[in-house]
Every structure is written in C-alpha cells, then in structure tokens.
Write a structure and sequence with these properties.
The protein contains 37 helices and 47 strands. The protein is of the alpha+beta class and 1544 residues long. A hairpin with a 2-residue loop joins strand 32 and strand 33. The chain is flat. The two termini are 71 Å apart.
C-alpha cells in the first residue's frame, strides 16, 4: 500500500532556507499527538458506529485500522531512524552554520556597496571654529562665555566660622531676653536654648522649636519645627500617627498665631495640647476597637466616645447581682491645660485611683494596661470580701491573698481545705478577668467537686461548707492513693462487695477507701475517713481488715459453702467483727486496727484496755513533720504490716495442718524482721537431725518478695576446700516464690522437697565418709572435696584435680543428678557417660563406687575424647555430598563400656577394666553369637592385627593366666598333614584367622594361610636342641645388611638363644616392661617390646597355654631376604567387605611369587598378572569370623596412643608429617573405609574391572592401559598404597618407573590422605581409566604439582594443583564436594587450580589463584574451559583472560594438526603466558625468583622405600630438607586447599 500523508498535518515546504533548515518537533510530543488522534478517532467511532449498518461498521473499522497501522508503521520507522539521527543532526547543524556565515558575508557586501554608492556621494564636512579651538588648546579656558552664567550659577562666598559663632551667640541672648519678658505655660518650663533657637518639650504630647529674625521687640517669633510625641506602635504598623500635610497645616496655623496674637506662646501650647489630647483619645479608641475585635469580643464595650473630649468603656457586664462596671477617660473640665483623667463607676479608693491614673502616664499609651490595672484592683477587692466570708466558715485557718509577681497577673485567694496542706493541694480562688466571676482550682488534682464549688461561689454561698467538706475527703482519698503508689496495694473508692444489710461494715461512713493487697487477693483493708471534732480541717483514719472470698452475685451472703467461678467475680466478707486485740495468726476475721500499734513497730505490745483508737497527734510534732503532707504514715504502716505478716500466717497454718511443729510468728532481735521457726521436720535419715540446729523462714526482697528458708547445720561430715565452709556454723539458704495464701501449700511442698534433697544427699555423703576414713580403700588420695553445701557436693578428681563432678538430688526426677565440668576450654571426659553414671548411682546409692569408676575410667575416656567428632561433608558416596556425617561417635552402653562408631560404618567396643587395662573388640559382632554380624555396622577387617601392635605384654601379664588360641593356629603337626607342599613358604604378615560370618557368606577376613611364628620356630629349635633354618625363598636383597632377628625365648632361655644381629629400634608406641617375667607363652619373653602380629594373641577369657607343637618349628635364618623389616612382621590388613565378589582366598607369600635373582620389589612391581600369582600353599587355618570379636587387652597408655593425633611413623626412614595429623585409629579406620569404597567404585564404574586375586585385603583392578594393586601398609596398617604396572608386558617401554612413582606418590599424599574423602578416591580412579596419551599428560600435571620447583626452572608463571573434589570457591558446574573428574561419552571434565608463582608480592597481598574447569574432547583433541550455556552470565576478568588464552592455543593446535594430546600443552601454554588484567605489580621478577630455588634431597614415599629404589634427584627435582612423605611445603593457592580440602 502506498503511503498516505497524514490528514491535517501537512506542512507546506517552502523553498530556500526554510526548505533546507526545516522545523523540528519532539518525538515525545509527536507520539502524544498520535495517541490523542487515535483516541479521538476511537471515540468518534464509538459514537457513530452504532447508528450504521453492519457493513458500514466493518468498513469504518477497517479504514480506521489501516490508517492507524500506517501511522504507527511510520512512527516505528521514525524511531528506528532516530537511533542514528545524531549524525544527521550534526551534519544539518554544520550546513546551517555555513549557510548563516554565507548570508552574513553577502549582506555585508551589499551594505558596503549601498553606502559607497548612495550615502557617501552627498556627504560634506562643516567649517572648523579655529579661534575657539586655538584658545582652548593654548590657554585651557574659554573667555568668551556670557556673564549671566556666572551670576546665576556660582553662589556668593559664605561668611566665616567666627562670624557665624558671633551671630548665634547674639541670637541666643535675644531669645533669652524675649522669654524673660514674655508669659509661658507651666507645662512649657522644659525648654532648651541652643544655636540661635529655643526648643519646648511637653512629655507624651509635643516638641516645638522657635527663633526670632531680629533684635527688635516687635519682631515676631518664627516657628522652625513642630513634632507630635503621641505614638502607638500597634497602629499603622509603626508609621507616624500624624500625616505630613497635617503637620504642615499645624505649622501654618501656629505661625499665623505667633504673628497675630498678643501671647503667642500661650497660643502655641493651647493649639498643640488640644491636638495631642484628641489624638490620645483617638489612639485609645482604636486600641479598644481592636481588643473587641481580636480577643475580648463582647466582654468589654465602648459606651460613649466624643472625639477630643471623652471615651467611656464598660466591663464585667454579665456579673450577677453586681452593679455595672465601667470607666471614662476625659479631659479635665476645670483646667483644660491638664492631661487626661479617668473616672470609675463604682468608684475606687483614692489610692487605687492613683494607681490606675499612672497607666495613662506611661510612655507607651495602652488601653489594655489600663484595663488590667482596673480589673486587678476590682479582683483584689472581690477576693477580700470572699476572704472575710470564708474566715467565718473555716476556723483556725489562715487565708492568704497571693498576688502575682508579674504585672497583670490576677490576684489569687489560697484556701487550705485540709490540714496539713501542701501548696499543690490548696484551693485557689481567683476572679475571671473577662467576666468577673469566681474560678476555683486545685493544682494537684482535677476534682469533680470543683465545678460545684465554683458555681456556689458565684451564685449560692450557703452550700460552700458542705462542698468544702466533700473536697477535704476527696483530697484525703487521693492522698491514700499517693501513699500506696509505691506499696504492693491499690486503693479503690468502691468495690463490688456483697454483705448483709445489718453487717457492721454497712455502718461505716460513706467516706471510706478499699485497699486491695496485690499479694493477698482475699484480704481487703477498709480505711474509714472522719473529721476531727476539735479541728474540722484534719481528717483521721480508721482501719478494718476484711477477709473475703470470690463469689457470684447470685449467691446468698449467708451461704458459706458456695464458691463458684463466674466471669465477673465479686467479693464476700466474712461475717465476724473482732476486737482490737486480735492476734496475727487469726487472720480469717474482720477487725479494726489500732493505728498506734501499727505506727510503733511489730515488737510493741498491744494495750488490751484501750478500747478506742489512739490519736495520731499524740506523738511528737517533730516525728509527724518527717513525712510530707500527702503521705499518710498510718496507712503505709498498716499496709506494710498486713503485707508482711499475712504470708507468715498462711504458712504457719499450712505447717499446723501437716503436723509440722513450729514456734509461730516471732519478731527477731532488734525488731529487724519477722521470722517463722520450724522445730522439727520429717525425715528417714536420722543422722542428719543431729546436725540440724534450726530452720527459719523469712521474707526478703523489696520489689518482688520471696521466701528465704535458712537451714543451720553444725559442721559437715566432709571437710571441703571451700573457704566459706570451714566453720562449724553451716547455713544453707533456699528461695521460694511468694504465692497467694490459698496456695501456700506449694511453698511448703517446695520446702519439703529441698529438705528431701538435703537428706538424700547427706545419706550418700555419710556413707562416703566411712570409706574416706579408711586408708585401705585409697579414695582420699584419688579425689578432693571442693565444696559440700548440704544441697550440692562438688568433687574434683583426675591427675591434677582438673575435672569436677557435682552431685545433687533432683526432687522433680526423684533421683540423683550429676554435672561434670573441668577447666575452661577443655570438656570433661565423663560428660559422655553422665546418664550411665547417674543410673549407676541411683541404682546402688553408693557414691564410693561412682568415684572408683570415675578414677578408673578417667584416662580411657580422656583418650577417647581426643577422637574428632566434627561432622564432615562428602563422606558417604550414597548420600548427597552436602549431608554431614559425624566422624567418631561415642555411644556409652554402661559406665565402663563405650561403643566408638566411625563414619556410621565401623564400630569398636571399648570396655574399661581394672588395673589400667581396657579391652577393645569389634562392635559389629553380637555378644551372644560371634558369628552373627549386626545389621547396622560392618566388621572391621584386620582389627586384631592392628590392636596387637599396641599390646604391652609386660603390662598384660598380670591379667593373663593362660594363652588363648582364638587367633593362634592349631598344632603344626596336624596342619602339615593337610598341606601338599610341606616346604612352601608361609605368608608373612598374616595375623588373624579369617572366616565368614555365616557358612553361606564369604569371609570378610584374610584367608586361612598363616606363617610360622618366629617364636614357635625358636621354641621348636630349643626343644630339639638342633639348628634348623627355614629354607630361604629369595636371596637377600643386600648381603651386607642382615635381617632383623626374631629371637624366641622359652620358659627357660639363655642369652645364647638371641640372634647375633642387633634388633631394630623399637617404635615409641609401646610400653616395654623392664623385667621379663617367666611365662609359658614365648611372646612374654620376647626382647622386642612391640609384639608382632604373627605371635599368638591372647584372649582374656581363656587360659594361657603353650602349644605342644611349638618346638617343631625351626629358627629363622639370619639372612632373611624379605624387603620388610623383620622386627615388625608383615601383618597384612584384613580387608572388610560385604561387597559382592570380595576376595577371601588364601593369601600367598610375597616371596613365593618372586623368582630367584629378582629385586625385592620385583614381585610387586612387575607381576600383577593374576595368572602369574601362583602362591605356594601354607598351613590352612580353620575359618573363624570372630577374631575381631575377641577382646584385645590394651593399657591406658596404648589406648591414648591410639586416639592421640600424631604423625605417621616409619620403621627406618623416620617420621612423616602431613597437613592434617589424625590419630592412628583414625588412619587405620580411614584406610579401611577408603578401600571399602574403592571396591564399590570398581563395581559401579564401567571403565574399571576387578581382578580376582588370592591376596586378602588387597584390591586388584585393571583399566585399558594399567594394572593397579591397592594394599594396606603392612608395617603399621595405617595407610593405603598403590602399585601400578602396564597391562601388557610389551608396553613396559611406554611407561617409565618415574611416571609410575609420580602417580603412586600422588595417590599416597593427595588421595588417601586425611580427611579420607571417597570422592577424591573416585576422581583419581576415574583419571586412571582415561586413554594412554591423555593419562601421560595427567602424569605431567601431577609432576608439576608434586614438584613445583620444576615449573620455576622451566619459567612457568603459574603453579598447578589438582583439586580432586570441587572446592567451595570453584564454579557451580557440579555440586560442591563431589568428585571433580567426570567422563561423559567423548568428553572429560576435570578441574585444576593455578596459582601465581615466582613473584614476591607486597605484605598482605596474596598471589592470584583461580579454579579452571577444563573439558577435553576425545574426538576433536581440543581442551577448553567449561562454561554454562547462559548468555547473560558475566565471567570475571581473570576467567575471561584464561578462556581467551585457551582459545588461542586451540586454534594454533588445530591448525598445526598435531597428533599429541592437547591437555598438557594447552595447560603449559596457559601457565607460561597467562597475564591477568588487574594483576598487582610484583616486587621481584619471576626469573630472579626462579634463580633463588635451592635444591634439596629427593623425596621418598613409603612405597619407594619398600618397593622402589629412590628416585634420582634430577628426575624428581628438589624436595624438602628431610626424608619422608608427603612434602612439608606445598605450593598451592592460599585461598583453597586443592587436594585434600577442608572437612565439609
């Protein structure tokens, strides 16, 4: 459709400048016009379409939509064009500027041409006036000007100053002479002659200045000036009251009078005086009109106003029974020369009239001041009349009319209604200045009686006495309320009280107060108010104590049994009236209280003969003056007395009801307080009654009161260390809540519960005293009594008495409770078994037994408390990584039996025995059936072998009487008969009998192959008296290094039975006994302090016995070729596994698989093929699953070593430190847990395949390129190790030993290290399954992490670390804590952390570090950064720079067509060339830092020490300063832990 121009908006396009420049319009305005036009057309259509046919409506709608669409299409095009309109606008402005400049040039040229052709043609110059110019230029003046100019403009020369002074002095003399010879008014005596003139000043009227023009007597006065002094600041906004024209008219009139009149000065005064009086009246009139209009309304009125003569004003016009009040301001009729005067009606006294007249003599004229003075005097007069009348009504009362200190304040009549009276309680009577009526007010209160008093003052004075009496009682009631405002009581004028018509309370006067005691809901104090006959203004108080109870309005007042709760509760009084001599124990009655008794303290005896109340005024006046007037001391003392004694009465009644003897309510010495003493309490513990001296019950507290029970005991059965518990008087205090009287039994119950607490605790303390007295029990040396307060016993125990136990009886639980504490910062070890110790104490009620248990179990529980129990994330593979799992959990079963659960998988049962021993067993087995495994836990494989390394036989000897054979092999004679090859070697390192938990389940323990014990072989050699050597399996690894001996000592041994070789140094984890005790067991006589796991282990339940076949075993050879230290025999770690296909076949000896002539590590390094693992069969042990279920006895020191965090120890190379130092038990269980998880990973991962192997506890698996062997360290069973070999023998050339060592080293130091996270193991296992070329690149990356010095030597800017789990600071591609190595089809995702290295940054500035998620595509051989498919995601600048560098290398690698894997080259390029955009300037160049790298001896791992020769220094690079693993210093990011990470 062709564009159609807008209707009505076509602007004609003019040519020339308008066409080029055009006009502009705002886009918003254009859109506004378009919207308005569309809205207008829609409105028109809405009105017209209903009248048309359907076809016409459709046509109109279509036309409208077409026009509107075309209009908005144009708008859309215009908006799109406007985005680039800035350039067009700039070009248009440039063109307009050039056009304007061109137009200016053309106009200038035209104008110049017009001037040259038209104007300049007729232009001529006039003739110059040369003579005048010459005169001006030469002389500087012009002498030819007319003389008239000088005469008219230049003034004559003035007279000299001396002539002027002489003239003025002469003129002053002339004026003085004229005044002396003339008559003047007395009002004009205030004059001043100065400077040839005389000035007359009349105050508040005018000021006039005159002079004379000559010395003659007939020369008239000359008026110089006249000034009117009448002023009003409020009128005319401060402008003068007289107009300048009026002033000029007065000037003319006065000048004419001065010339014509004979007495000109009289005329001047009369004219100006009359004018000023008229002006003053006018000002007062205007002020009165303004007051009526603005403020006073009709309270005042102008009765008459005669200008210049008088002004009459009336006030108090509506005052009843009073004449009309008004005053008139007028001139003096007798002497017109005087000022204005005021006349009052009714007339005022002469003195008061003079006071009012002074208001007109003020400088500032004010009608308001005149009114105030007049009304004040009238007010004072009316109050004086009222005072005279009130003096007759109130006798002996001083009335005072107090005048205000400020001017204009009204007079006030102060009437003391009650005596004594405060200023704030005075009845103040004044007069309303507007209306003249009386006003009454009490400053302190707003009484409802005041309006009636005020009405009576104005109209009817006969009701005043009655109203004043009511006000007196009303003020007294307010005094009662104010007196009780700080007391626990509330005053009420009336309460809904039901009583009989003839009840005594009905006879009380109507002026009374009801006082509700807050703490005593059923007691009301009634205060009756009466006037004293001799002094009506004084009020006396009578007090009545009324006992009430809740009742309904429907109840009968006579019925004493009904007490129903209704929403609205009323009170019923008891129906008895007692005499004044009432006793405080009988509070259930109504009695009138004697104020004198109340005022003189609780110790004052009551005079029974006094039947009437004593007067308050009988006491000295000085005592009464101590209290302010509003304070009623009688009321305060009575309320305090009731509040104090009523609780004692209720408690005493409750004691009497329960048969508890007491002495009643007494007053303590010095009348300090009230006390209730109990004589005897019920108890079953009779010895405590001998020590109880007294029990007193008091009330303490000011605001919130409470009961205080004081028990006084004589001494204590235990001598404590507390300094306050050394005397013979031992008070014990208890506090109880103050409850209402009706539930006072609760307080008695609480008191009896506390007494029960004291008795029960005293019973066990009394029994404990008997044990402490005798030294044979030894309890006094194990504990110390820190405190014994009869309610709590605090004991300290432990080595340095740092642990404390608090014992107390809990009345709520009816049992003893224990609280354990210790020094700040260290928890008490017994807090874990608190519930068990409490149950033991409550069951046996013997504190001595509990103390013995505490001392026996203290050290083991302290050791177990060292196990870390912090929850960690990412522990269980089956659960989400964000679910926390507790590390070690202590589950006490009894005070001496604790279950230790690790990661919710393994369970150890620790039983604390006497004599410093503990027994440890596998808690996953049932106590009743050792073949039955509990469903909640997994058996701990190799537990017996691990614990046997910590057995101190010298300490356990006294506990054992026979040798158990639970884990010992049967007689070798019997075993040899079942072995096919008698000469085969036994498997070293086997320490336990392995069997399944049931006949159908594979054994979770190692196989039944067991090596010959060196001890049994030594015994055999000793018994046969011949030298028998074990046939060697392999030649010795070093002929100059003899193997460690295993000497055996029988029952009678000689020094000759020892081997010639020196034994190895003993590990520090054992406690050897200095004395070798004779025993049938050869292990007790072994010189090696650490018992070998190969030696027979004892069972505490079975007697010790020597095997009869022990003598048949030969002595081991001195040249043993085992690569492991013989002093610590190779005890393999049992591999616990409930996983399917778990290997449980008999394990061959590692020496049996080695061929003669191979290196010691050859069998492990190059023979992982299962086909080659053909073990020699040894003795077959019967399969038993309860080896770990048999308890192992350990000393407390050994248990502490197991649970104390310590670095891992090696046998020959020394200690190895790690970043996290766990305990040996945690390392052992963590290794088992990771090996168990590895078996699950093999079953779940597709790229890993398990290989059946005959070695129990060893995991064999293979990938596409490697054979892997994961086994436990046979020396200490606390770490896992990895052994790698190629899948095929012909591939050995493609893998170097150095590469295998790098991966094995990484596995040991970064994968299976604390905190033992299976996700890290899963990531490493997945890394081993990648293709060969990619795994080679991974080895290079691992090499750079283990040896960061290599990167510095190669000039790399960044160091690399491999986080095996996604750290919290990493990207959110995968959840935090999961394995950071993922394989999905043909892509591999892994994470690396790079850190800036080789640069020294300023202090406080950390090196930059970041986590890089890398993705490698197996098909395209491209390595790049992984990113989410989110276009709006904004990456940090560092990530963007790394991504750009990776893309550049990917383009280069793709163009180069290289066959090698791109992972390591891409990473190496990134580490060498990445520069961050915001990297801070370094303090040292990278090359300089690289030159400072100093080499160190090569690092050696345990695997390298056991199986490989040490790496050459040039292969592994510089390492730490000492040998061991892992390195002490890791080059990593300071922000994250790239390998182990923090526990999550």
């Amino acid at each position: 459709m062709a564009p159609v121009p807008l209707e009505g908006h076509q602007a004609p396009v003019a040519g020339g400048q308008e066409a080029r420049g055009g006009s502009s319009v705002s886009l918003s305005l254009l859109i506004d016009f378009m919207v308005q036009r569309t809205y207008h057309e829609l409105s028109v259509l809405a009105e017209l379409l209903p009248r048309k046919t359907d076809v016409e409506r459709k046509v109109e709608i279509y036309n409208f939509s077409a026009r509107t669409r075309q209009l908005y299409v144009r708008l859309l095009a215009l908006v799109k064009w406007a985005s680039g309109a800035s350039k067009v606008e700039k070009s248009t402005m440039i063109m307009q500027f050039l056009d304007k400049q061109s137009m200016l040039l053309v106009d200038t040229a035209d104008m110049l041409t017009r001037i040259a052709r038209d104007t300049l043609t007729h232009a001529r110059l006039p003739s110059f006036h040369i003579p005048a110019a010459v005169e001006v230029l030469t002389t500087g003046t012009y002498s030819r000007l007319p003389a008239i100019i000088r005469e008219k403009i230049v003034p004559p020369d003035p007279i000299t100053p001396s002539e002027r002074r002489q003239t003025l002095l002469r003129l002053n003399q002339v004026i003085q002479h004229r005044l002396v010879t003339s008559d003047i008014r007395p009002q004009m005596r205030n004059l001043k002659i100065e400077a040839g003139r005389v000035t007359f000043v009349v105050d508040r009227e005018f000021e006039v200045c005159l002079t004379v023009m000559g010395e003659g007597e007939n020369v008239p006065w000359r008026l110089l000036s006249a000034k009117i002094l009448v002023a009003d600041k409020d009128t005319g906004e401060g402008r003068p009251l007289v107009h300048p024209l009026q002033t000029q008219y007065l000037h003319d009139v006065l000048q004419s009078r001065l010339v014509d009149e004979k007495q000109p000065l009289y005329e001047v005064y009369d004219v100006l005086h009359f004018f000023c009086l008229a002006l003053r009246l006018e000002v007062l009139y205007c002020q009165t009109m303004r007051l009526c209009r603005d403020r006073l309304d009709d309270h005042i009125r102008i009765d008459d106003y005669k200008p210049g003569k008088s002004l009459s004003i009336s006030y108090w016009r509506h005052l009843p029974e009073q004449p009309q009040h008004h005053f008139t301001i007028h001139t003096d009729p007798h002497d017109p020369a005087k000022s204005l005067v005021v006349t009052h009606l009714p007339s005022l006294a002469q003195k008061d009239s003079e006071i009012v007249d002074k208001a007109l003599l003020m400088e500032q004229l004010s009608i308001e001041r005149l009114l105030v003075q007049t009304i004040y005097l009238r007010t004072k007069s009316r109050l004086a009349e009222l005072k005279t009348e009130l003096e007759t009504m109130l006798k002996d009362v001083d009335l005072d009319i107090v005048t205000g200190q400020l001017q204009g304040s009204p007079a006030i009549l102060s009437v003391p209604v009650v005596q004594p009276c405060l200023r704030a309680e005075l009845l103040l009577i004044t007069v309303d200045t507007h209306s003249g009526s009386f006003l009454a007010h009490v400053p302190q209160y707003s009484s409802p009686i005041l309006p009636e008093i005020q009405n009576s003052l104005n109209y009817d004075h006969t009701r005043l006495p009655t109203l004043l009496q009511e006000l007196r009682f009303w003020i007294t009631q307010r005094r009662c309320e104010k007196t009780l405002q700080h007391l626990p009581a509330t005053a009420h004028e009336r309460l809904p009280v039901m009583h009989a018509a003839d009840h005594p309370i009905a006879k009380l006067s109507r002026h009374k107060m009801f006082v509700r005691l807050h703490r005593h809901q059923r007691v009301i104090l009634v205060v009756e108010l009466k006037e004293k006959p001799e002094s009506p203004c004084e009020v006396s108080c009578s007090f009545y104590l009324v006992m009430v109870k809740p009742s309904s309005i429907e109840d009968s007042p006579e019925d004493e049994t009904i007490e129903t709760e209704f929403p609205k509760t009323y009170l019923r009084e008891k129906l008895e009236h007692f005499q004044t001599n009432w006793t405080y124990s009988q509070v259930q009655h109504v009695c009138e209280l004697d104020s004198f008794v109340s005022m003189h303290g609780p110790c004052t005896a009551v005079d029974e003969s006094c039947g009437q109340k004593r007067k308050m005024s009988d006491g000295p006046a000085a005592k009464r003056a101590k209290h302010p007037a509003y304070f009623i001391p009688e009321l305060a003392h009575v309320v305090a007395m009731c509040d104090e004694r009523l609780p004692f009465v209720a408690i005493a009644a409750e004691f009497s009801r329960r048969g508890i003897a007491h002495q009643g309510i007494q007053v303590e010495a010095g009348a300090t307080a009230v006390v209730l003493r109990v004589v005897q309490l019920p108890t079953k513990v009779k010895p405590i009654l001998k020590r109880l001296l007294s029990l007193s019950l008091r009330v303490q507290g000011k605001g919130t009161k409470a009961w205080l029970a004081e028990f006084i005991f004589h001494g204590a059965p235990l001598q404590s260390l507390h300094p306050k518990e050394q005397g013979l008087r031992r008070p014990v205090y208890f506090q109880y809540e103050m409850v209402p009287e009706e539930i006072a039994g609760r307080t008695v119950d609480a008191l009896l519960r506390d007494w029960e607490q004291i008795c029960n605790l005293y019973e066990i303390v009394y029994d404990l005293t008997e044990f402490l007295k005798h030294d044979k029990y030894g309890l006094s040396g194990m504990i110390a009594v820190k405190s014994y307060s009869y309610s709590r016993l605090v004991l300290s125990y432990g080595a340095d008495r740092s642990a404390t136990m608090t014992v107390f009886w809990s009345p709520d639980h009816k049992a003893f409770r224990l609280i354990f504490s210790s020094n700040p910062g260290t928890p008490n070890a017994h807090a874990a078994v608190k519930e068990q110790l409490q149950a033991h104490l409550n069951r046996n009620r013997s504190l001595a037994q509990v103390l013995v248990l505490l001392c026996e179990t203290y050290e083991p529980l302290v050791s177990l408390g060292k196990l870390p129990g912090l929850p960690q994330l990412g522990v269980h593979q089956s659960k989400a990584p964000q679910v926390a799992t507790q590390g070690f959990t202590l589950l006490p079963q009894s005070p001496t039996q604790i279950r230790v659960v690790y990661q919710g998988v393994y369970c150890l049962e620790v039983r604390i025995r006497g004599g410093g021993l503990v027994s440890v067993r596998d808690g996953s087995y049932s106590h009743l059936d050792r073949t039955h495994v509990l469903s909640d836990f997994t058996p701990t494989q190799g537990l017996k072998a691990f614990l046997s390394k910590y057995v101190d036989e010298s300490a356990v000897f006294l506990r054992r009487r026979s040798q158990s054979e639970d884990d010992n092999p049967p007689s070798p004679v019997v075993a040899m008969e079942n072995v096919s090859n008698p000469g085969s070697a036994s498997t070293p390192g086997q320490s336990e009998n392995q069997a399944t938990s049931s006949p159908s389940v594979p054994s979770p323990f190692l196989g039944g192959i067991r090596p010959q014990s060196p001890a049994t072989r030594a015994a055999d050699a000793a018994s046969s008296n011949v030298l028998r050597f074990h046939p060697p399996h392999t030649p010795p690894s070093n002929p100059h290094t003899p193997a460690s001996p295993h000497p055996a000592m029988g029952h009678g041994f000689s020094p000759a039975s020892f081997s010639l070789a020196s034994p190895p140094p003993a590990p520090p984890i054992v406690n050897p006994s200095p004395t070798v005790l004779p025993s049938p067991s050869p292990i007790l006589n072994s010189p090696n302090p650490l018992p070998s796991p190969l030696l027979p282990q004892s069972s505490p339940q079975q007697p010790i016995g020597q095997s009869p076949a022990a003598a048949n075993f030969p002595q081991p050879s001195l040249a043993d070729s085992s690569p492991f230290p013989s002093s610590q025999s190779m005890a393999s770690s049992p591999a616990p596994s409930n996983w399917p296909s778990s290997p449980s076949v008999p394990r061959p000896s590692p020496g049996a698989a080695r061929a003669p002539g191979h290196s010691p590590a050859g069998g492990f390094t190059h023979s992982p093929d299962p086909a080659k693992l053909t073990p020699h069969l040894s003795r077959i042990l019967p399969q038993r699953s309860w080896a770990g279920a048999v308890p192992t006895l350990l000393t407390h020191e050994a248990l502490d070593l197991l649970c104390t965090p310590a670095p891992l120890l090696q046998t020959a190379q020394g200690p190895v430190s790690t970043l996290i130092e766990p305990s040996p038990l945690e390392r052992f269980l963590g290794s088992l847990y990771l090996r168990r998880q590895l078996q699950r990973f093999i079953q779940s991962e597709e790229c890993m395949q398990s290989i059946p192997n005959p070695e129990p506890g060893v995991v064999h698996l293979k990938t596409d390129t490697l054979l892997c062997r994961v086994f436990q360290n046979t020396t200490h069973l606390q770490s896992l190790h990895l052994k790698l070999s190629p899948l095929n023998e012909h591939d050995e050339t493609s893998w170097s030993p150095d590469e295998f060592q790098i991966l094995e080293k990484f596995f040991e130091t970064k994968v299976v290290c604390p905190p033992f996270k299976p996700q890290a193991l899963l990531a490493f296992a997945r890394m081993l399954t990648v293709p060969y070329n990619m795994l080679k690149d991974f080895v290079q990356i691992v090499r750079l992490e283990l040896l960061p010095q290599l990167g510095l030597q190669q000039g790399l800017r960044w160091s690399v670390q491999w986080p095996l789990r996604n750290p919290p600071s990493g990207t959110h591609l995968i959840p935090t804590g999961v394995a950071s190595f993922l394989i999905c089809r043909n892509k591999i995702l892994f994470f690396l952390c790079i850190t800036r290295q080789g640069v020294q940054y300023p202090p406080g500035v950390e090196p930059p570090s970041m986590i890089l998620p890398l993705v490698y595509d197996l098909h395209t051989n491209i390595t790049q950064l992984a990113q989410k498919q989110d276009q709006n995601q904004v990456h940090p600048p560092a990530f963007a720079a790394a991504n750009l560098q990776m893309k550049r290398f990917a383009d280069y690698h793709a163009n180069a067509n290289l066959d090698q894997c791109s992972v390591f080259p891409a990473l190496r390029d990134l580490m060498a060339n990445l520069v961050l955009p915001n990297e801070p300037p370094p303090m040292m160049a990278p090359m300089a830092a690289a030159q400072q790298v100093v080499g160190s001896p090569a690092m050696q791992s345990p695997m390298a020490q056991m199986h490989h020769s040490p790496l050459p220094p040039n292969a592994m690079g510089p390492g730490p300063q000492h040998q061991g693993y892992p390195p002490q210093q890791q080059q990593g990011s300071p922000m994250i832990n790239p390998h182990g990470m923090m526990p999550q």
